[in-house]
Design brief:
Pfam families: DUF3987. It comes from Chania multitudinisentens RB-25. Helix 2 packs parallel to helix 10. Helix content is about 55%, strand content about 10%. The protein contains 17 helices and 13 strands. Helix 6 links the parallel strand 4 and strand 5. It has two domains: about 325 residues, Rossmann fold (3-Layer(aba) Sandwich); about 90 residues, Arc Repressor Mutant, subunit A (Orthogonal Bundle), CATH 1.10.10.
Length: about 475
Amino acid sequence: MLPPSMQEVISEVRNLTQAPVSMIAVTALSVIALACQGAIDVRRMEGLVGPTSLYFIIKALSGERKSTVEKVLMSAMYQFEQEQHEIYKKNVETYNQEMEIFKVRKKALLSELRVNTRKCRDTSDVVEQLSELHRSYPKSPVRYKLIFNDVTPAAMKEYLCGDYNSVGLMSHEAGSVFDSHALRDLPFMNQMWDGSTVSVQRKNADEILIKNARLTLSLMTQPKPFNKFIMRNDEEARGNGFLARFLICEPGSTQGYRLIENQNISTKNLKSFQNRLMEIIKKSTEILNNGEKKCLRFTNDAEKLWIKFHNDTEVETRDTGLLADFKDYASKMADNMARIAALLHYFWGYPGDISLDAVISARAICLWFGDEHIRLFSKSGEQKLIMNDENELWEWINNYCNQNLVKTGKPYMKKNAILQLGPNRFRDKTTLDNTLTALLLNGRIQVGKEGRTTIVKPKMINKTPAELLQGLDL
């Protein structure tokens, strides 16, 4: 699935951390995307050019060594940020000194201009000096920040309007991200994935544009915060395609099998990986300052395979296809596949256009993520027991809301009523939250707010008022 050199890196990190292999591989891919997105775009077909940014969610329980994996694979990023921060502090000192000199010179010239004007002397020389002074106005230093762990949409927009606009929202404990303001502006996140130009309106200031900005997301989270996020934002997150842009996985646990067998672990390939990351990050910085991104295109054979992947995916969205229930996700698969192919090709230093081998690897990766998406969100197969729980809870909610509609005119109920009055096993908050999340993901309920109270509403109430009245003790 992956290039041999990347497999060797993953193997070394696996030996170091004994974390799940898929978690390591996905984290490595997110780091590559963050490093390369500022340097390259990808051309899928004529007129279809887009970013190489990627959005990931990794669901894993506490103790799976998420933070260790991120620390190992992102050490070059952290080193770059630290180096740039030291440079930035020195540049700020220089800038402050230059500004003081500028202000003193400006004050002196303005004083001379006032005197000459008052005494009717020639002011052309002073005016020219003022113009020259303003042309040499000190430029504020650029702060090169690669990584945000938690940030408001407003703060991120403000940063992306600046000179360095290729960043990542990366977190090994993304529960805080899902619970905070970072993901409150989902349309903005969609625009960043698309590579769109974004207009930013500010109080007491002119409109500014975010242009050619790049954003990669890598969110490692325990299931519960993700489920809560889905409950709060399901209709918007699925309706506007936010979740469809993500490559989501839930690696199998290695806990209980992480035995120390060999203390002499090679890190040769990992060091080469870090060196390559640093090389690309520095190149990306130069491109953002002085040039244009490189646009990679497919070789003829690679383009044919990409088109076949696109068409095969489209066919599978038909009513009888594997992706019939996941049309939103399927619509982004070919785009994600092209991005991954470009990243693999560029990061590992292959010359020329995107090779067939890179597309074959990217295709395998996207198919794996597709299987994960179906496994995590499907109604069938191994989830029959879960579906039985879903069906039972949905039937109870539906019956309760039908009666509530007749009695009060409200076709919904308070979530707390389920904890108090529902079937016994759903009076456990964790069980209830997990089952409600599954119902949300499958489009069977809506969750909203009435004041501060969480309310639940079934999406289908098929009975007529006459049928609802039968058998009710009104």
